[in-house]
Amino acid sequence: MPDVVPAAAQPLSAPQKALRKLGLVRDIDRALHLPLRYEDETRITRLRDARDGDVVQIEGEVTHQEVGFRPRRQLLVTLDDGSDTCVLRFFNFYPSQQKQMAVGNRIRARGELRGGFAGLSMMHPTVRAAGSALPSALTPVYPTVAQLPQPYLRKAVLAGLAQADLSATIPEPILDEIGHLRAWDLRQALAFLHRPAPEVALAELEDHSHPAWQRLKAEELLAQQLSQLQARRARERLRAPVLRAAPGGLADRLLAALPFQLTGAQRRVGEEIAHDLGATQPMHRLLQGDVGSGKTVVAALAACTAIDAGWQCALMAPTEILAEQHFAKLVEWLEPLLAPLGQRVAWLTGGQKKKARAEMLTLIESGEAALVVGTHAVIQAQVRFARLGLAIIDEQHRFGVAQRLALRQKMSDLLPLPLAGEGRGEGRGRATADASGPHPGPPPAGEGVNAEPHLLMMSATPIPRTLAMSYYADLDVSTLDELPPGRTPVVTKLAAAHRRGEVIERIRAQIAQGRQVYWVCPLIEESEALDLRNATETHADLSQALPGRMIGLLHSRMPPAEKKAVMALFTAGDMPVLVSTTVIEVGVDVPNASLMVIEHAERFGLSQLHQLRGRVGRGAAASACVLLYETPEGGRLGETARARLKAMIETSDGFEIARRDLEIRGPGEFLGARQSGAALLRFADLAEDGALLQWARHAAPRMLRDYPQWADKHVARWLGAKSDYLKA
Ligand code: ADP
Ligand code: MG
């Protein structure tokens, strides 16, 4: 890419650094950085013609200047334009401004005009010297950061626009279905949006309904669909070990040992996964199922299949607590079956003692650890699998994009060439026999065929259909749409914070019946700004209110060993109440817990609330979730907070929750793009641009087939370095 800013040849200035931070590296990136809104500086309004509240640009002579002190220090400048006078008011000002606005100077000021009995005034207008020619286009205002002033950014964008290659990347026939957007090719659309003529309706520009915007959105969606499709094709060229369960093998034995029958949904999803595992291409499947739908056992069965076929399986969870819990459960389920085969379940985490870790690494490298459970420590560089066949990521949306990328990278390192049965696993007895014995192995992998383990991702945050279509074109999705039988729905109640006392009575009643209770707080330390009641304080309150009961405390700053001890007491049922921060948000499974209290519920995100609520209602006991909320002093809850709490009361269906969450937050945030810093779709809005998305979905495969070079160019233009993120 010739138009990249040279890497660190000389130190970058602050605005240059800021440009980089915004991802505005190539000319095309800058050309695609579009205005948030526009200011009309194309005309001068006479004071006599302006109305109170108008944002106007006025020009005239300074007739008076003074520094006033009431009610506070301020600079007052009187401007006379011949039709009327207006006082410009500045609470912050510099000597240079006083000089610029000296009596007798002609200036141009832009701001909101206020009328009043003392005459017209403007607060903090933008001021420049009069006389320069008026711009002929609306002035764009770009999204920016502190170190990057608008004028600098404007220049950078216009330079990018002038230099970028904007030649067509969408062939004519592909444009058929959106023929009405032909009139605006990329070059025209960008030229227009960066410098719109003053007579255009600002509303059309600002709500992105203008055809120039539509064209950009169409191009963006097409790029995204193409890149997903390319990722899928690339994956189809990869090879993976063929994993099939042996009849009467581990999976069957696990099923026989479980205290329950699989639900119909678990069986169906299990078959979908088994089908993928038996193929020669790596699986890339998302298993989505609402909280409590029983994903863990599906994962365990997939692991059994991999182990049966003579390969290792890794299971990764986003938090130590969750990984720990999976480890305990999988040891319970699988070690009795693995031990006779001389195999084990290994445990890997960041907080582990050196010696324990070294032991685990040896087990993994030798292949004795058939299953490895842990946090993201599982994908760290020192970890060497003997033969990893399947990687499972639980609550995958909780991993950052960067971690997901690292995993995929690591996965391709894990399974070096060649993959044919004879190449690997020699001398590994059972493994070799199974891999090349009863089942046909993958076609002999010649040079140049890359291999990867199968990948199963799990998530309790279901992706709404439109999002799935758009973002996860490179993903097969299985859905657990049925809860195990015998669950009673969780009753959700709202309560204002002053009803804490009643809630504590309720806790007393629950624990008298032998049930357990979670109490979740948003922060662990008092913060002056937020004045939240913190977990430690609540813990002290509850300990006092419920004397003689063991009240646990869990938060993310505790040492891992302590967390583990607390969690163990709660899981065993010895601790009736657990006060915690959101560290228990995902995956934690204690079926005896029947009451969830969430303090400051108005501060939590919707999917977070739903996840937390999912910690109860896992057994047969009637369960409840109490959302304690606090209104700001003298005010009401904010709009979005109310929408979230309302959704929680009205539905417990994870899909409906996800749909509303999307509505409240918008897709960028929904996918956690904010954390990664890489907004996935900048212009298109999946909720509104369904028709364009449909077009892009149809156009992408055709374009890839008939115009592959155009497709490459289009993706590179739009996504540049970001296309990696899309594949993660
Ligand atoms: P999640 O999908 O939220 O990860 P889990 O896998 O933790 O759900 O399962 C929730 C609970 O339901 C666990 O206690 C699990 O043992 C139990 N469970 C899973 N499948 C079934 C089933 N088919 N019948 C009864 N209980 C089940
Ligand atoms: Mg789970």
List the helices and strands and how they pair.
Elements: H1 14-21, H2 27-31, E1 37-39, E2 55-68, E3 74-80, E4 85-90, H3 95-100, E5 106-114, E6 120-123, E7 126-129, E8 139-141, H4 150-163, H5 186-194, H6 202-206, H7 211-236, H8 250-257, H9 264-277, E9 284-289, H10 295-308, E10 312-316, H11 320-338, E11 344-348, H12 354-366, E12 369-374, E13 388-393, H13 401-414, H14 430-436, E14 454-459, H15 465-471, E15 476-480, E16 491-496, H16 500-512, E17 516-520, H17 535-545, E18 551-554, H18 560-572, E19 577-580, E20 593-598, H19 606-613, E21 624-629, H20 639-650, H21 654-665, H22 667-670, H23 673-676, H24 690-706, H25 708-719, H26 723-727
Parallel strand pairs: 4-6, 9-14, 9-15, 10-12, 10-13, 11-12, 13-14, 16-21, 17-19, 17-20, 18-19, 20-21
Antiparallel strand pairs: 1-8, 2-3, 2-5, 3-4, 5-6, 5-7
Helix pairs in contact: 5-7, 7-24, 7-25, 8-10, 8-11, 9-10, 20-21, 24-25
Bound molecules: adenosine-5'-diphosphate and magnesium ion.
Residues 295-296, 394, 587 line the site of magnesium ion.
